[in-house]
Design brief:
Layout (H helix, E strand, L loop, with lengths): L3 E5 L21 H5 L5 E4 L1 H4 L4 H10 L5 E5 L2 H6 L6 H10 L7 E7 L8 H11 L5 E5 L8 H9 L3 E5 L14 E6 L12 H16 L3 E6 L6 H16 L2 H7 L10 H63 L1
Parallel strand pairs: 1-2, 1-8, 2-3, 3-4, 4-5, 5-6, 6-7, 7-8
């Protein structure tokens, strides 16, 4: 049965002290407080840099079994490499976040606004992320990506398009996967506006429609600048709980979730991907060495032939000279 996740884009914000977190609560206990209010969080820190494995291990220990994480993919992959030739960066990314795999359900790949649709890059990237056992979602920032070819490619791979209220962009897009992913950035993408109860009711209505279609729903509030995000997320949760039909309400509760892959299964899949990538790297390295050896072997032969030709020419010249002298 479908489920829904509601959370914020991060949880470590000083501006939340006194507005969401108690004034006297130390930052090291903020996550424990957060998980008592919401059932998921989207981590943006992984977009900017990769932390040490210990950080992911700590977050895993500090959260209950039913809590879930959505991680933002590295900007090196999306903004620098533009999705091309990223097998090794992907390997590094997933290897680092592996301690969190049991609770990690989504990886969000946010593309830059100046990155126009490139079907070849997209196709290669989808093939590269296929071995990793998580759900994937793209947040496109350039309108050229909003086309039927992209929708078809994502649908075939069960990859979602992020539905975001980004300025001058389309919020309600086709549901290309068995789940829906929504981000609320604040009015005008300001990250600082408060959503009204009426707006939240509209979002609740959309979520209910997706749930009735049998799709899981993930929604994250990114209007974190002034501490509105957690309050908007909690209010939306209350609206949904009060308005969902009995069947869907039961399925939305974390205790009623459908079984998911175990940590061991996910780790096995990641190890398989790691092994495959390393094997490809080894093949390339061997090919280079072989090419080098071949060059070294053939080079002397070419030199001998060249020397022989020169010697033959000199001999012919000498014979002609003798004949003339005679």
């Amino acid at each position: 049965m479908p489920k829904y996740r509601i959370g914020c884009s991060g949880f470590l914000y000083d501006s939340w002290r006194g507005t969401f977190y108690p004034e006297d609560l130390p930052p090291k206990r903020w996550l424990s407080f957060y998980v008592g209010k919401l059932n998921s969080v989207e981590l943006n820190v992984t977009f900017y840099r990769l932390l040490k494995k210990e950080a992911f291990e700590r977050w895993h220990k500090e959260t209950p079994p039913q809590f879930s994480f959505s991680l933002k993919g590295s900007r090196f992959i999306t903004h620098v490499k533009k999705l091309k030739d990223v097998e090794l960066p992907l390997l590094t990314f997933f290897n680092t976040i592996s301690p969190l795999l049991e609770k990690q359900e989504i990886v969000l790949w946010q593309l830059p606004p100046n990155f126009r649709a490139n079907m070849k890059n997209l196709e290669e990237f989808i093939a590269a992320i296929k071995p990793y056992p998580v759900r994937h979602v793209f947040e496109f920032r350039h309108k050229s990506w909003i086309n039927r070819k992209v929708f078809k490619m994502l649908t075939e791979s069960n990859i979602a398009i992020c539905m975001a209220d980004w300025p001058e962009f389309i919020d309600e897009l086709p549901a290309t996967a068995d789940f829906v992913y929504m981000r609320r950035h604040g009015e005008g993408g300001s990250y600082a506006t408060n959503y009204s109860t009426e707006q939240l009711k509209k979002y609740a209505k959309r979520i209910k429609e997706y749930l009735k279609m049998g799709k899981d729903v993930y929604i994250y509030f990114n209007n974190d600048a002034l501490g509105y995000a957690p309050h908007n997320a909690m209010e939306l949760g209350s609206i949904l709980e009060a308005s969902l039909p009995a069947g869907l309400k039961a399925s939305a509760l974390l205790k009623k979730e459908k079984p998911k892959k175990s940590k061991a299964t996910k780790k096995k899949a990641v190890k398989k991907a790691v092994k495959k990538t390393k094997a490809k790297k080894a093949v390339k390295k061997t090919a280079k060495k072989t090419a080098g050896k071949t060059t070294r072997k053939t080079a002397p032969k070419r030199a001998v032939k060249k020397t022989a030709k020169k010697a033959a020419k000199r001999s012919a010249s000498a014979i002609k000279a003798k004949k003339k002298r005679r």
